[in-house]
Amino acid sequence: MLLRNPKFAYALTLPVTIILLALLIYPLFVTLKSAFWGDNGLTLSHFADMVAIDGFWTVCRNTIVFTAGSTLASMFLGFLFAYSLEFVTLGRRFFASILIIPLAMMPVISSLTFNMMMNPALGVVNALLKEVGIRGPLWATGTPTALLTVMMVDVWQWTPFCFAILHAGFRSLPSDVMEAARIDGANTRQELFKISLPLLRNVLLVTLVFRFMEAFKTFDVIYVMTQGGPGRASETMVIRAYKEAFQFFKPETAAAIGVVLLVVTLISTRPIGRALLKATT
Amino acid sequence: MKRRQFLMASGAVLAAPFLPRRAYAQSGFNWKQQSGKTISVGMSRHPWQEAIEPIIPEFQELTGITVKLSKLPEQQYLTKTVADLTSGTFSQDVFMTQYYDSPSYQQKGWTKDISPLLGNEKLTDKAQYDWEDFFPAARDVAKIGGKYTDRIAITAEAQTLIYRTDVLKEKGVQVPKTFEELAAAAEKITDGGLYGMTMRGGAANWWPFYGFVKSFGGEYVSRELKPLINSTESKAALQSYVKLASFCPPGITNSDWDEINTAMLSGQAAMFLDSSVIYGRLQDKERSTVVGKVGVAPMVAGPAGPHGQAHFWTISLAGTAAEPEAGWLFMQWATSKATQGKIALKGVLGPRSSAWEVDGLTAVFPKEFLTAVQASLKTAVISPANLKFFELMDPLRAQVQDAILGNTSPNDALDKVQAAWAKILA
């Protein structure tokens, strides 16, 4: 019925399209207007204000470090878990369920819990380290460790995401190809690098792009654990945009930051999108 | 005769329950004028909220107005209130506010002008309410926004020294009266699991720091909004702050009101130089591990005297309030002499002179506490409110944290703040 009547198919998608447009296009329009419109019409002064904010370059650097570090760490760990699970014969489903649990928890809840556990004076982590004779670091309250701490919690929360997709990817590898390779005498390493990885190329790229976008947008963990502190050690662009909008009452600067984030996301994900469209050999 | 006597007696008996209500109405004021309405009230978790919540049913009975109360912990309350106001989804009629937001709230019309309501004979029982009963500083806070009167003060707090009597006695330490004595005492006490002090180092560290700055003779900004933060006096204040921070439990840069309360309540720290409001909690048998071991002294003195930070939480009528008159009746009742007196007896002191003299107060607060806080309030200061308040406090907060962690010297820290403020206020 749908093949014969394309107009009906379009009509069916109309309600969803209208809602999505309203939720996406209208806020986008308002943000662009805030960012580019000043007292005298079109202006770039809000972007100049943005670059002039206190600690701007530290915030940029933190954003890059956090996003890159978080993405790479959780991709690597997710891949490790997914690949290791291929060798497990008994209880594979059990391990898979456990590994997904952090993703099912609300980020705010897990961030609050980690915050309590990693409190340098009262938390359980430093107490355990003391038992072993190590003097625990300041975790979220010390300048060199704050960014690392929030990255760790973020990786804990999002590795299950990478794991889940990669696990599905591994499970969907054609078993006849793998068997043929084994018969031809390929060892485990060759199997992984020469066969599994190339076949998983698209899955890896999709996971990477989603994980990257999520890491770029991270707010909950940082806000709950450090609010960007101490000093500006863990402040990222997203946290700063929030402060500009809701604490300093400067929505134009926040909008400028939003536009920059959007442009960076579009630019960074484009090569991945192109790579996905290229036919696999 | 007998029948007349009987009729008079039965008349008196029947009329008896109505007499108290008549007494309230004797002043001519009709509390039931908004009966049947419903108002939404937003509060931050605070000893004041804990004291008034159980008596809200009295208000509901008095006026016939239903109250829907929503409350959140302080940090979350402040975040959510601003977020809702900014996005236009704020649904409370009456809500607790912080006075330093007043200029920006007034600019955006987020609070209503209450002077017409205060002056309206029908809506305000002027004689009973007695505006002059409020402390002068509290009356000033009502208009601190600059444009109109938009808030009533509900608490009176001052930066006060609170200490563990048993710990000080054990270590042979006298109650500190100056910042130097305080640092020396904290150093002597800190040992193993017990820390000399607990202080704020988190997002709100600018609050107690203002008390330090004024006590050393410095200032944040001038009346004309010129930054004055890098004066020698302010730098000395930061040096003192950083020194005291070294005697606090680790993790101070995440430590705000809730954390310093916990540190005192759990016996982790021995001294506290922050808001006097904590006292009620420290003597509460259900929450505190140090009941009866707590002493109070006035704010310690710096070279320019003891000038602790004072604070008045306030309550405001929302600009978008659906029921402003009913909301005003709630505000009037909550800040009335009778209610604030009741709240004082529960351990939360208000910004009214009458609340400090109510009968039975000395049973709740030892004389030592009342004298100490009154002494602190007399010389206390309040941070000036202005449109860019939080934008200014952010770099200050960041540099104070860096100074506490030793990443920068106190002098460099305040020079950086001065530069940042000059840019913001330019």
Structure description:
Chain A has 281 residues and is mainly α. Chain A has a domain at 60-237: MetI-like fold, CATH 1.10.3720.10. Chain A has helices at 6-36, 45-52, 56-85, 92-104, 107-117, 124-131, 143-171, 175-183, 188-199, 201-216, 220-225, 237-246, 251-277; strands spanning 37-38, 41-42. Chain A has a two-stranded antiparallel sheet. In chain A, strand 1 and strand 2 (41-42) form a beta hairpin. In chain A, helix 4 (92-104) crosses helix 7 (143-171) and helix 12 (237-246) runs antiparallel to helix 13 (251-277). The mean pLDDT of chain A is 90. In chain B, strands 2-1-3-10-4 form a 5-stranded mixed beta sheet. In chain B, strands 5, 6, 7, 8 and 9 form a 5-stranded mixed beta sheet that branches. In chain B, 47% of the residues lie in helices and 12% in strands. By secondary structure, chain B is an alpha/beta fold. Chain B is globular and about 85 Å long. Chain B has helices spanning 2-15, 18-26, 47-52, 56-63, 74-87, 102-108, 115-119, 126-129, 136-142, 165-170, 179-189, 206-215, 232-245, 257-265, 278-282, 324-334, 337-345, 353-356, 361-364, 367-379, 389-404, 410-425, and strands at residues 38-44, 66-72, 94-98, 152-153, 157-164, 195-198, 269-275, 294-297, 310-311, 313-317.
Q: Would you tell me the structural class of the helices and strands of chain B?
A: alpha/beta
* Rg measurement of chain A, Å: 23 Å
Query: What's the β-strand tally of chain A?
Result: 2
Mean pLDDT of chain A: 90
Helix content of chain A: over 70%
* CATH architectural designation of the largest domain in chain B: 3-Layer(aba) Sandwich
What form of chain B results from the Cα inertia axes? globular
Main β sheet profile of chain A: 2 strands, antiparallel
Which chains make the largest contact? A-B, 29 and 32 residues
